[in-house]
Amino acid sequence: MDNKGQLSSSTIRMFNVPNLLTAANLLGGFFSIIATLSGRLDLACLALLLSAIFDFFDGMAARVLQQHSPLGKQLDSLADMVSFGIAPGMLMFVMIILGVDQTGLKIQENGLRLFQGDIDTYPEIQILAWVRAFFYNEPNYFDATIKWLPFTAMIIPFFAMFRLAKFNIDERQTDKFIGVPTPLATIFFIFFPLYFYTELPNWGYKSDYVRQIFDCYSLVGIVVLFSILMVANVPLIALKFKNLTWKDNKFRYTLIGLSLLSIVIFRLWSIPIIVTLYLLLSIIENSQIKKNEI
Question: pTM to 2 decimals?
Answer without folding.
Answer: 0.91
